[in-house]
UniProtKB/TrEMBL annotation:
It comes from Prauserella marina. Keywords: DNA-binding. It comes from the Bacteria. CDD domains: HTH_ARSR. This is DNA-binding transcriptional regulator, HxlR family. GO terms for molecular function: DNA binding.
Length: 217
């Protein structure tokens, strides 16, 4: 298949068009989503992105690398893929894109979220909420739609002044649940119990603030 011409090659000097040359192909944005909070191997990406073919995934990873957004550790066997600082800088754009799309009505369907997906959804909403709790905790999530899901552990900082989620080493003491279950804790009624006091404080703060400003997204 011939390589398609870029917007720039068509004479378009718009910065937004240049961004689409990097991230505008199908699957590219969700690949970035899955690499934002946790580096992953090729097979992990395949598992978390049902529907993507190996050839398309390999092409998207290559294009992201050529665009300076992707790094990988070829000495690992198999290699692990992560994002460069330029790639990580896409996170606020992804959150804004998610917020914009959350206002578009879609039919109810049987969909769920990956571990990265649910945490980025939480961040997208929480940045717009007043936060009252001071919580630092770890959480292990897995995608229970998969036959043999992998665990991903995250460090969460939730304070009035700071909101951050990052990769954390595996921790047997961290609460563990499916990403779908965590989405229920955050977004579904009624308010359920959480498996730890810190996580319960975070969930109650999130849901209370969300309810208080009348957020329906």
């Amino acid at each position: 298949m011939p390589k398609r011409a870029t917007y720039r090659e068509h004479g378009d000097g718009c910065a937004a068009a240049r961004a689409l040359d990097l991230i505008g192909d199908r699957w590219t944005v969700v690949v970035i989503r899955e690499l934002l909070l946790h580096p992953k191997r090729f097979r992990e990406l395949q598992d978390l992105l049902p529907g993507v073919t190996p050839a398309v995934l390999a092409a998207r990873l290559r294009e992201l690398g050529e665009g300076g957004l992707l790094s990988h550790t070829p000495d690992d066997n198999p290699a692990r893929y992560g994002l460069t600082e330029q790639g990580k800088a896409f996170q606020p754009v992804l959150e804004e894109l998610g917020w914009w799309a959350s206002g578009i009505e879609v039919a109810d369907d049987d969909t769920s979220l990956t571990p990265n997906g649910v945490l980025l959804a939480m961040l997208t909403v929480a940045r717009r909420l007043p936060r009252r709790s001071d919580v630092h905790c770890e959480l292990t999530l897995y995608d229970d739609r998969l036959a043999n899901p992998r665990d991903y552990t995250y460090s969460i900082t939730w304070t009035p002044a700071n909101l951050a989620v990052s990769e954390a080493p595996s921790n047997a003491a961290a609460p563990r649940m499916s990403s779908g279950r965590f989405a229920e804790l955050l977004f579904d009624e009624p308010v359920p119990d959480a498996p730890s006091d810190k996580l319960l404080a975070l969930v109650k703060d999130f849901r209370g603030a969300r309810s208080g400003i009348g957020t329906t997204r």
